[in-house]
Amino acid sequence: MMNLMHWRMVVAVADTGNITRAAERVGMTQSGASQALALIEETLGVQLFSRENRQTLPTAIGLPVIEQARAMLGALENIRSTVDAAKGIQRGTIRLASFPMVLATFLPPLLRQFNRLYPGIQVVALEVSDDEVETLLGGGLVDVGVVLNPAPERNAGRLGRDAWVAVLPGGHPLARRSVEEGVSLAELAEQPFVLATGGCSTNARSLAIDAGLQLHDVRVEVREWSSAFTLMRENIGVTLVPEMTLPSQLQGLRVVPLIPRIDREFALVVAANKPPSAAVQALLSMLAEN
Q1: How far apart are CA 25 and CA 11, in angstroms?
Q2: What is the structure's pLDDT at 143?
Q3: Looking at 47, 65, 87, which one is the last position of a domain?
Q4: Neighbours of 25 (CB within 10 A)
Q5: Residues 177 and 242 in one domain
Q6: Best CA proximity match to 276, nearest among 157, 111, 106, 116
Q7: Which residue segment(s) compose the domain that 111 sits in?
Q8: Residues 196/167, Cβ–Cβ less than 8 Å
Q9: What pLDDT is recorded for position 272?
Q10: Is the Cβ–Cβ distance between 58 and 14 less than 8 Å?
Q11: Model confidence over 84-116: pLDDT tens digits?
């Protein structure tokens, strides 16, 4: 029965032109090498080499067989190199911090895919506010964190993007606006307001401040987006929320685009004060390929 040693012997004979030197290369005795070569030729039913003038040279059929043997052995080496390179990321732990909405929506399918690819790596997810994500990253207490609108120099792995939209009680005057007309942030800032934060420092108040505006009449401030929608159905005020937080049922509510549009991007950022581990690099590579 042929094995890899036999095929290494075939390639070595082709390279050296001599069975004795080929046997030395692959670590066999000369008699063992001759027997291996004879076995392969007998099994294949063809003569791979001709022996003349103390040289062992490939026959016509031997040439393509030798090339296929080289390709097979090369593929085996590639497999071994791939496995050796991956051994460092077969075990480990990744500490990941994220704010609630991304942790509940975008991350689960990605983490399931990562667990399928690297079952030996455990991802420990911490649910915190966006400010706390930055604190944990800065202190090196987590390996990666989900950051809103990261600066380009942070080399973040983008997870997704959505737009801020106005949500109004169905009977509100601004609810009559068409999608094309939209509503401006300045108009919203003048209305009675239900401020929903989602546990993030980036919210309607911070967006207004960035635009040189102020929310003039904040009636209620809540953490949960769902609480804001409930209050609006009671005509308490208007609100501004990320599009991905909208409820599946919009009875009693009207969603109007913000004009001009304001987007938010969330991305995975590596802690800056330490090099990423092999496990973290594997996670970022998977994210880049999605």
Answers
A1: 10
A2: 93
A3: 87
A4: 15
A5: yes
A6: 157
A7: 90-159+265-289
A8: no
A9: 83
A10: yes
A11: 666 666 678 899 999 888 888 889 999 999 999
pLDDT, position 160: 86
**CATH number of the domain that residue 236 is part of:** 3.40.190.10
Residues of the chain with pLDDT under 50: none
User: Do 166 and 259 lie in a common domain?
Assistant: yes
In this structure, the answer to whether residues 167 and 239 fall within a common structural domain is yes
Given a contact cutoff of 8 angstroms between Cβ atoms, the answer to whether 271 and 140 are in contact is yes
Structure tokens at 6: 């036999």
45, 103: one domain: no
Phi then psi for 68, rounded to 5 degrees? -65, -35
User: Are 39 and 132 members of one domain?
Assistant: no
Number of residues in the chain: 290
Residues 100 and 190 in one domain: no
Judgement on whether residues 150 and 192 belong to the same structural domain of the protein:
no
Tally of domains within the chain: 3
In this structure, the answer to whether residues 27 and 73 fall within a common structural domain is: yes
Give the pLDDT confidence of 13-63 residue by residue, as tens digits: 999 998 889 888 888 888 888 888 888 999 999 999 998 878 889 999 999
Nearest to 278 by CA among 84, 76, 110: 84
